Amino acid sequence: MGSRMTWPQILQSEEFQGRWVALDDCRYDSRTAQPVEGSVVDTDEDLVELCSRIQKDESRHCAILFCDGPPVEPPPPSSRPSLLPFAPSRSPLTH
């Protein structure tokens, strides 16, 4: 471990999918305060196990994120079904 990677690289990597990833020496997005890059310290499918190892190593300043795989992109606009405008049904009033 210890390789420096961007979060998009981590999301694209099959090695990290479905795992918790501990990042140290992070660079954060100034708008969202989310880590965008860091050194991969450790990974695990079990968050408790990962945190236990991080605490034992005294690397307590890690950002820990779940890698659920690359973001799913919506289909292009031309392949989306068209939506019909809403028209309320007109039922006759009965007396």
Summarize this structure as a short list of keywords or feature phrases:
95 residues; alpha+beta; four-stranded antiparallel beta sheet; 2 helices; 4 strands; 29% strand
Helical percentage = 10-25%
Distance between the termini: 78 Å
For the biggest sheet, the summary is:
4 strands, antiparallel
| Tally of separate domains | 1
Helix segment count?
A: 2
Spatial strand sequence of the major β-sheet: 1-3-2-4
Order of helices and strands: EHEEHE
- Average pLDDT reading: 83
Percentage beta strand = 25-35%
So what's the overall shape?
Answer: elongated
Oligomeric grouping of the chains: single chain
pLDDT under 50 segments (min length 5)? none
Could you tell me the radius of gyration in angstroms?
23 Å
Return the structural class.
alpha+beta
Number of DSSP E strands = 4
Molecular structure report:
- It is a single chain.
- Helices cover 17% and strands 29% of the residues.
- With 95 residues, the protein is α+β, with helices and mostly antiparallel strands.
- It has one domain (4-70).
Q: Secondary-structure map with pairings?
A:
Elements: E1 4-6, H1 7-12, E2 19-28, E3 35-44, H2 47-56, E4 63-67
Antiparallel strand pairs: 1-3, 2-3, 2-4
Brief overview:
By secondary structure, the chain is an alpha+beta fold. It has helices spanning 7-12, 47-56; strands spanning 4-6, 19-28, 35-44, 63-67. It is built from two helices and four strands.
